[in-house]
């Protein structure tokens, strides 16, 4: 019997259910975190476009604020201008002044430099306006407006280019997301199927011995103790039960065999007893028979006949003599070959005795041919 | 256990257990493989978004020409950019970066506002350009003229072909092809203005002095296309043909005019009756030479020009000095060497 290391039934079942659950959980977590990461990244993809849009809006606001102040010269407009100027400066801080050998980075650098110039020009225009230098502020404002158009074009162009780039990245990320999803579904399905197979197999390792055991038990219950006992292959609870069952069946078989043996012995004993009894009875009979002395009987009967004769009871004497003859003949007949005549004579005697008992009511007639009198037979 | 419709029975419990173990192992392997693939894919995706590491340049140079989209200037730009990349100079043609179209003056102003380190500009003699270049110089920007010189005060160096040697090439071509007295119309556009044409004609005539043959008498007429704007050159050339205001010999001094004139000659069936000498090198012009519509073309080696320009900036940055004039070869293409040139253009 090839016994595996004993993993208890409980452990097997826990294993069967927990292991695939854990694996599925891991895979699900992977999907969740992966998807979350990709989605986060997706958010970031268009961030460069968002910042450029903000920059463009800020620039436009600043230009309008500058124009507004130069048109009206109110303190509200001035305040508005300073606010917009600060806002735009803040937005510019996000752009590095770089020396990266890349088309987009160079464009960013140019936008920053041009914007710094632009801020200076707008400041100068505003200061000139405040100072009342009409020609100067107009000239500066024109230059600022031209610079504004350069910056705006650059921002738009960069925005478009980056949008195309970002869309490619977005497409790639979506592709990655789709691949991850597909990967996960395939993994889940694969693990699901493998899990199913695993659970079925584990269930079989648990159920199979039980089924065999049940079938064997059923056969045994129908009285067949010669059924092939299930092989014990494990040391778990089912194995223990199977082993116990096997032992039980063997024990019952032995017990029945012993019982049968003892019953047989008892029967034989009984038979012998009966035979002995018979023998004893025979012996008793013979003993009893042997106790009756035939001479004593004849002498006694003759004495009785003589007594009767002496008393003048002829009939009684005759009767007793006839009885003596009868018994004499019965003893004799056990040993010798006798003739028919003798047998008939005995019958006559018997009829005489009976008629004495029944007062001559028995009528007995016989017709025998002479030759038959001498026929012989065993007594 | 009965499976598959009861036809197979797994008799052995240990076989079941082994199979169960295999299923578990398979699940683990599937999980591991999918984890590995997943990580790979995530890394690929994340790398896409990772901030790229860029090389750093030392100097930022902006190139502005009269016709940034032309084959010639594109070749110059590409050559300058490639050479500059290896020498820490980032050469930028800002008209290519922005979607809107700006004039040369506007581009020049943009370059100055952007605070570049150097400007390559195709020189012209407009006052506006001169004023802007002067402003650039005041802002500490190194100005280099390429292809065509201008404003000697503000610029540090001129990189281009020697105008005399260019003119003498035309002279040689004329002598080879012209046997009689004839009128020669010289047409130029963009940066080629009347002054420059006059200079060219003078140089040409000077170069012809030594070559002059008795029966060759050439009269030169200069035509500078002053109109700017889209299709101006093509319309001017079309008008010449419509009004039959032509000469038996025509010299076009830039790529666009050459191409327009070549096409008009075919359209108006003037092939054979006009000798056309062109400028620059492009697929169209080479085809024209091959078809014997254009006699020959003189071009400046665009690659050499670009390389020389980038080198000049690098040298100026590193040493603080550079030659006032950097010469670049000019070459003549005619029917003898057009095949070679075509092959070169195709291979690019």
And the CATH topology of the largest domain in chain A? Four Helix Bundle (Hemerythrin (Met), subunit A)
CATH topology of the largest domain in chain B: Rossmann fold
The coarse overall form of chain B would be: elongated
Give the amount of beta strand of chain A, in percent.
under 5%
Strand order of the largest sheet of chain B: 4-3-5-6-7-13
CATH architecture of the largest domain in chain A: Up-down Bundle
Please name the two chains that share the biggest interface, counting residues whose Cβ lies under 8 Å from a Cβ on the partner chain: A-B, 64 and 49 residues
Number of helices of chain A: 9
Number of strands of chain B: 14
- CA radius of gyration of chain B is 31 Å
pLDDT < 50 runs, ≥5 residues of chain B: 1-10
Instruction: Tell me which oligomeric state these chains represent.
Output: heterodimer
Based on secondary structure, the structural category of chain B is alpha/beta
CATH structural class of the largest domain in chain A = Mainly Alpha
* Average of per-residue pLDDT values of chain A: 87
Number of strands of chain A: 2
């Amino acid at each position: 019997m090839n016994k595996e290391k004993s993993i208890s039934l409980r452990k097997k079942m826990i294993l069967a259910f927990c292991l695939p659950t854990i694996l599925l959980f891991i895979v699900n977590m992977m999907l969740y975190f992966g998807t979350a990461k990709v989605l986060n990244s997706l958010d970031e993809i268009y961030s460069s476009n968002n910042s450029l849009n903000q920059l463009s809006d800020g620039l436009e606001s600043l230009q309008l604020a500058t124009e507004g102040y130069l048109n009206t010269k109110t303190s509200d407009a001035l305040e508005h201008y300073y606010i917009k100027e600060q806002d735009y400066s803040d937005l510019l801080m996000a752009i590095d002044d770089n020396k990266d050998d890349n088309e987009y980075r160079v464009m960013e650098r140019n936008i920053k430099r041009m914007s710094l110039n632009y801020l200076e020009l707008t400041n100068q225009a505003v200061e000139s306006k405040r100072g009342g230098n009409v020609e100067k502020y107009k000239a500066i404002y024109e230059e600022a407006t031209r610079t504004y158009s350069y910056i705006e074009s650059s921002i738009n162009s960069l925005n478009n280019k980056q949008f195309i780039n970002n869309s490619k990245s977005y497409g790639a990320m979506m592709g990655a997301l789709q691949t991850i999803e597909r990967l996960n579904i395939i993994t889940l399905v694969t693990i699901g199927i493998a899990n199913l197979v695993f659970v079925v197999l584990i269930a079989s390792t648990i159920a199979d011995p039980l089924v065999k055991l049940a079938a064997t038990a059923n056969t045994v219950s129908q009285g067949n103790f010669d059924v092939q006992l299930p092989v014990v292959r494990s040391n778990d609870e089912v194995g223990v039960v199977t082993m116990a069952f096997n032992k039980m069946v063997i024990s019952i078989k032995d017990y029945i065999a012993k019982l049968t043996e003892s019953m047989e012995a008892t029967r034989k004993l009984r038979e012998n007893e009966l035979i002995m009894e018979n023998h004893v009875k025979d012996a008793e009979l013979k003993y009893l028979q042997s106790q009756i002395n035939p001479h004593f009987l004849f002498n006694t009967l003759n004495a009785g006949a003589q007594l009767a004769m002496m008393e003048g009871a002829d009939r009684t004497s005759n009767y007793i003599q006839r009885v003596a003859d009868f018994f004499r003949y019965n003893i004799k007949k056990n040993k010798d070959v006798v003739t028919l005549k003798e047998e008939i004579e005995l019958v006559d005697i018997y009829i005489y005795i009976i008629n004495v008992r029944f007062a001559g009511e028995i009528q007995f007639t016989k017709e025998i041919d002479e030759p038959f009198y001498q026929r012989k037979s065993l007594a | 256990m009965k499976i598959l419709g009861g036809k197979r029975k797994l008799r052995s419990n240990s076989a079941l257990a082994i199979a169960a173990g295999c299923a578990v192992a398979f699940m683990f392997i599937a999980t591991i493989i999918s984890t590995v693939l997943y990580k790979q894919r995530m890394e690929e995706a994340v790398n896409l978004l990772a901030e790229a590491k860029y090389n750093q340049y030392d100097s930022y140079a902006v190139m502005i020409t009269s016709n940034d989209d032309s084959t010639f200037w594109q070749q110059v730009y590409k050559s300058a950019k490639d050479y500059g990349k290896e020498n820490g100079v980032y050469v930028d043609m800002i008209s290519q970066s922005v979607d809107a179209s700006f004039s040369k003056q506007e581009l020049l102003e943009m370059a100055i506002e952007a605070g570049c380190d150097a400007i390559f500009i195709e020189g012209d003699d407009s006052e506006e350009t001169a004023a802007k270049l002067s402003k650039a110089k005041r802002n500490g920007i190194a100005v280099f003229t390429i292809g065509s010189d201008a404003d000697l005060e503000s610029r540090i160096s001129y990189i281009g072909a020697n105008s005399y040697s260019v003119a003498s090439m035309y002279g040689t071509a004329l002598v080879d092809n012209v046997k009689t007295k004839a009128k020669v119309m010289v047409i130029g556009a963009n940066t080629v203005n009347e002054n420059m044409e006059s200079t060219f004609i003078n140089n040409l005539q000077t170069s012809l002095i030594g070559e002059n043959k008795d029966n060759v008498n050439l009269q030169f007429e200069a035509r500078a296309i002053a109109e700017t704007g889209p299709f101006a050159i093509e319309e001017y050339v079309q008008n010449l043909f419509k009004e039959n205001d032509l000469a038996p010999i025509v010299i076009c001094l830039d790529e666009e005019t050459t191409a327009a004139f070549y096409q008009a000659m075919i359209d108006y069936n003037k092939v054979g009756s006009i000798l056309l000498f062109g400028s620059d090198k492009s697929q169209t012009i080479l085809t024209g030479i091959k078809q014997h519509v254009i006699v020959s073309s003189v071009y400046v080696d665009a690659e050499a020009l670009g390389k020389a320009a980038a080198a000049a900036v690098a040298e100026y940055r590193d040493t603080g000095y550079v030659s006032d004039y950097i010469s670049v070869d000019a070459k003549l293409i005619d029917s003898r060497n057009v095949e070679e040139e075509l092959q070169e253009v195709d291979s690019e």
